[in-house]
Every structure is written in structure tokens, then in C-alpha cells.
Design brief:
Blueprint (H helix, E strand, L loop, with lengths): L1 E4 L15 E4 L19 E2 L6 E4 L10 E4 L6 E7 L3 E4 L2 E2 L4 E9 L3 E2 L4 E9 L4 E10 L2 E2 L5 E6 L7 E10 L9 E11 H10 L2 H15 L3 H14 L20 H4 L11 H11 L8 H12 L2 E6 L5 H9 L4 E7 L2 H8 L8 E5 L12 E7 L8 H11 E13 L9 H12 L36 H8 E9 L3 H4 L13 H19 L6 E8 L11
Parallel strand pairs: 17-18, 17-20, 18-19, 20-21
Antiparallel strand pairs: 1-2, 3-16, 4-7, 5-6, 6-16, 7-15, 8-15, 9-14, 9-16, 10-13, 11-12, 11-15, 21-23, 22-23
Helix pairs in contact: 5-13, 9-11, 10-13
Length: 545
């Protein structure tokens, strides 16, 4: 089996890469492969450094393997296949969150009248069973000016190991004339790393272009005049340049000793203990909403607070009990029954305004509040833009929006792709009795990650919440943690742990450690506590009283 690797690339866009040399196909050993013990990789990324084969090996005269395809609106450096050729990837494993991403087009401005096809197949090893992923057509004659993109879910192939085959075929009339297929991007990867891998494609070419571009730009008169004046004023001289060496790994460091490990309270459940331990090991603390409420009353004498989607208002009633004077509360919810339950939790001396309304249909009314609060409810709303507009209009100029315990993970209350990998590694290491799901009475091998928004509004747009908050409001104090820990100690599994037993406590500590390691390495928290101020001022006649 032979592998063709393109010759050294040139920087000018129109130049064609020289005819490729022939090399023996070897196992991947670079970062791109992430080989497991069996030699299979967790992903395949096509570029000039990847291990792949193009067959058959006989090429038409003058046919390049790599070239810049320039007749499209966006010129892209691409692998070229002619009709009858196919690309065969190195061996890879497919996971439940693996995807296929391919960007392709005709490599020439004009191809055969009947067009060409790009067919994609996964071949399972060792049985060589073929699983067709799709046949995609490119119309004949003058080709379109845009690339074609295909992004496919490969969950149905999870657990299989094999190779990807991408074939260029002639059109319906079997005319191969000028049928050259350009593949600009091709990647099979787990969802959490797909974007990173695609950004790494043709890395060396991009580095050279980047260096050349900025060396040219900063010699342009637009910048060079200022630089020359500053050089003359500083009387600067040439100096040595050094290479950056990475830090040596710390010796003898014990991650266990870095953790704060509190003793469990009497009768404390695993969820509460794990959450408390997590917060003890994160330098930042959540906003103190009770102290902020008390300070608002102290500064203003009397304030108005609106709770959106208040439900039974358990948190709001607790704040009212802690700060019983100087606060007039408005509770807004679509469920009138819950508003009546909420009302009974507030002292009769507290001003209480009960509003039945669908938060998805909120519009500014001119009424304004000192504080607008939402307790873990934004992730149930569809019309988030309307809600943000209402909040921004309805806060006083020095008012604050408080987001309390909001779920800002992936839509449907799923975990982020990279968190799934870390969570499953920690969860699957637990003995079976700790993985017994109280809801299903089944021992889970990995954490179920189903989409809870399918039949209701649970997490319907949760992954958009933080971006929308920052479009409309200015963050003041934001606390965001808990990437996946809550899923391992929630109601489904928390009852499996008895904190009175040292073994069970040790397992909870290990889960918190796994969470902290993921968080410290850039993991994205799914739990938000935040204080925001209004970013926009409106002259719409609204009162600021």
C-alpha cells in the first residue's frame, strides 16, 4: 500500500503543487492521531501531514495531488481526486458523538456535462462491511461558485473501528471528462474537538502565510512611519531573539493535597457534599444576593424587585424573610396556581404584586424595578431576545439583573462534548453499585446524555443564554462552575452513596477531583450565578422612579 504526500507547498495562491512522491503508508504517530493501544485513532483529519492512501496509484499526466482551487468565491487548498480514485483514511474509532465534516467542490471551472459524484463510505474492520454515508452530486458544465458542505452525525456507527473511503465518480452518463473533485476539508472527530482540528488543517502553510503577511503589513507606510519615529526617539538597537522553552513539570506535586476536603454534615447527601466541596476548591465565590439586597435597601430606602418565572418563589421568599423591610416584590409566572402557593410564603406585611404572564411574550410597559431576578428559569424560555429586551428596558438605570442557579449548559440539559469524555471516564470507573440509576433501575455504563428538550422546554436554548445576557447587559459578578459533577451525583445516583462510609466519601472526592481537573483545563461550567447591570439607556418615556 502506498501513500502519496504532496511536495513542499508554495505560498502564491494560483500555483499548483508539484507531482507527489510515493511513500509507504505508516501508522500515524503525530498529535493528529491520538492512537489508542490498538493503533486506531480517535479521529482523522485530512491535510498534507495526514496518513492516508489514494488509489489507484496511476495518475493522469499533469494531475496534482494538492492545489489551490481558485475558481470558487473562496480559494482553498485542496486534495484532488479524479474520477475513479478514492481516498482511504487511516484506521479510526467511532464514538457516540463522532461527526463527519467534508467541504468539497469541482476542482476545475468546467467539468463533464453529466457532472460528478462524491461518495463517502465507512468500511468496518476487520469484516470489511461497508456503511454508505452518502452520495453527493455536483452539477455538470460550469460549476457553482460556492463550496458544498456536509456535516453528518455518525452516532449510528458508534463502537465501530474502520476507515473512511471518499470516492470521486463520474456523473449519470459515466462521462469522466475533467471530473476532478476538490476536497478542501475532511474530518471525522468527536464533536468537542472538531472545530479545533479543522483550524489546525494545513498548519505549516498558514504559519508561513501569517508570518509573510504581517512582515509585509508592518513595513507598509501606514505603520512604518510611526515605527521609525519611535525607533529614532528611543535610539533603539537590534537585540537577540530567544526561543520560548516550556516549564518543566512540577516534581512531587500531589493533586490530592491541593484539594480542600471538608467533612460531611450529619445526614448530608452526596449531591450537597460534592457541590459544597467543589465550591470550596474554586477561588471565586457566587454572588451574595442576600447581602446585595440588603445593601440596595440601605442605599435607596425602599426598592422594587421583580422575579420572572417565579413559580412557587422558594428562593425569593427566603430573600424576603432575610430582608423583610424596604422591598416590594413582584412575582411573574404563567402558572397562577404556583403564584398562590408563592404568596403564602411571604409575610403579610410585605408588598406583593402577583402577575400572571407568559415570559415569552413580555414587552416593556414603562414600569421599572431596582432588581429583576430569575431563578433557574431562562433555560425554559424560547423568546430569550424578548426577555432580554424587557429586562434592559425595565431596569432602573442603576438597577441589576440577578441570574440565580441558571442552567447554561448545552441545549436539552446535555453536557458539552468535551465534558462528556471527562465525565464518562470518571463515572465508568465507579463500581457498578454506584452507577445504578434510580429512575430506570439499570446500571449505567456511562452517563445518559439525552436531550431533555424533546418533549418539553427543559434547556430549550440554554447554550445561548450567556451570550444573550452579554449582548444586552454588562456582567458585574459572574460565577460559573460545575461542568459535569452534578450529573454524577444528581437524584439518579446520589442515593447510592452513604457518606458515613469512608469508601463512599473517597469516591465522591475522586469525582470532585475529576471535575476540578476538567474545570482547570478550560472546562465550561453549566451552572451560572450572575449579577448584571443594564448596558443600554432608553429614551422611551419610561419612568426611572
Amino acid at each position: 500500500m502506498a501513500l502519496r504526500i504532496g511536495a513542499r507547498m508554495r505560498l502564491s495562491q494560483g500555483e499548483i503543487i508539484a507531482r507527489p512522491t510515493m511513500l509507504t503508508l505508516l501508522p500515524l504517530r503525530s498529535e493528529k492521531s491520538r492512537l489508542n493501544d490498538s493503533g486506531a485513532a480517535s479521529y482523522f483529519l485530512l491535510d498534507e501531514t495526514a496518513a492516508f492512501a489514494v488509489l489507484p496509484e496511476v495518475k493522469p499526466v499533469g494531475h496534482p495531488q494538492w492545489m489551490h482551487v481558485t475558481h470558487l468565491r473562496e480559494a482553498r487548498y485542496s486534495l484532488i481526486l479524479t474520477a475513479g480514485e478514492h481516498l482511504r483514511s487511516s484506521q479510526l474509532d467511532v464514538f457516540s458523538d463522532s461527526r463527519l465534516y467534508i467541504r468539497f467542490s469541482a476542482a476545475l471551472p468546467g467539468i463533464s456535462v453529466d457532472g460528478l459524484t462524491c461518495s463517502v463510505v465507512f468500511v468496518d474492520d476487520p469484516g470489511q462491511t461497508e456503511f454508505p454515508l452518502g452520495i453527493f452530486h455536483i452539477c455538470g458544465g460550469s460549476t457553482p461558485s460556492e463550496w458544498r458542505l456536509v456535516d453528518l452525525d455518525l452516532a449510528w456507527l458508534a463502537g465501530k473501528r474502520g476507515r473512511l473511503l471518499v470516492t470521486c465518480g463520474p456523473g449519470a452518463k459515466n462521462d469522466p471528462t475533467a471530473d476532478w473533485l476538490a476536497i478542501a476539508d475532511l474530518c471525522v472527530a468527536r464533536e468537542g474537538v472538531m472545530k479545533l482540528l479543522l483550524a489546525k488543517t494545513h498548519h505549516q502553510m498558514r504559519v508561513k502565510n501569517e508570518i509573510a503577511h504581517f512582515s509585509s503589513v508592518y513595513r507598509n507606510e501606514f505603520y512604518s512611519n510611526v515605527q521609525e519615529r519611535q525607533s529614532e526617539a528611543a535610539m533603539g538597537v537590534a537585540r537577540n531573539v530567544r526561543r520560548l522553552n516550556g516549564l518543566a513539570p512540577a516534581q512531587g506535586q500531589d493533586a490530592r493535597s491541593e484539594m480542600v476536603i471538608p467533612e460531611p454534615f450529619e445526614g448530608e447527601v452526596a449531591y450537597s457534599y460534592a457541590t459544597r466541596m467543589l465550591r470550596a476548591n474554586v477561588p471565586q465565590t457566587p454572588p451574595d444576593f442576600q447581602a446585595r439586597l440588603r445593601r440596595k435597601v440601605s442605599d435607596h430606602g425602599a426598592i422594587k424587585v421583580l422575579s420572572i418565572c417565579s413559580g412557587a418563589a422558594r428562593i425569593e421568599a427566603g430573600l424576603s424573610a432575610a430582608v423583610p423591610e424596604g422591598v416590594e416584590w413582584s412575582l411573574l409566572d404563567i402558572n397562577e396556581d404556583l403564584l398562590h402557593i408563592a404568596a403564602k410564603q411571604f409575610s403579610s406585611g410585605v408588598g406583593l404584586d402577583l402577575i400572571v404572564a407568559d415570559a415569552n411574550n413580555l414587552v416593556p410597559t414603562g414600569e421599572q424595578w431596582d432588581v429583576i431576578i430569575c431563578v433557574s428559569a431562562l433555560h425554559h424560555l424560547i423568546e430569550l431576545e424578548k426577555v432580554m429586551l424587557f429586562i434592559s428596558h425595565s431596569l432602573k438605570n442603576d438597577g441589576e439583573f440577578w441570574s440565580v442557579g441558571e442552567a447554561v449548559g448545552r441545549n436539552g440539559n446535555r453536557l458539552w462534548p468535551e465534558a462528556i469524555i471527562a465525565a464518562d471516564a470518571a463515572f465508568s470507573a465507579l463500581p457498578a453499585r454506584y452507577r445504578l440509576n434510580a429512575d430506570t433501575q439499570v446500571v449505567d455504563a456511562v452517563i445518559p446524555d439525552k436531550d431533555h428538550s424533546i418533549g418539553c422546554f427543559e434547556g430549550i436554548r440554554s447554550e445561548e443564554i450567556t451570550a444573550l445576557l452579554e449582548r444586552w447587559l454588562k456582567p458585574v459578578d459572574v460565577y460559573r462552575t460545575n461542568c459535569f459533577l452534578w450529573r454524577m451525583v444528581n437524584l439518579a445516583y446520589s442515593g447510592n452513596f452513604n457518606l458515613a462510609k469512608a469508601e463512599d466519601r473517597a469516591l465522591v472526592i475522586d469525582m470532585v477531583r475529576a471535575e476540578l481537573e476538567h474545570f482547570r483545563n478550560g472546562g465550561l461550567g453549566t451552572e451560572l450565578f450572575g449579577v448584571y447591570k443594564k448596558k443600554h439607556l432608553f429614551s422611551d418615556g419610561a419612568s426611572d422612579q
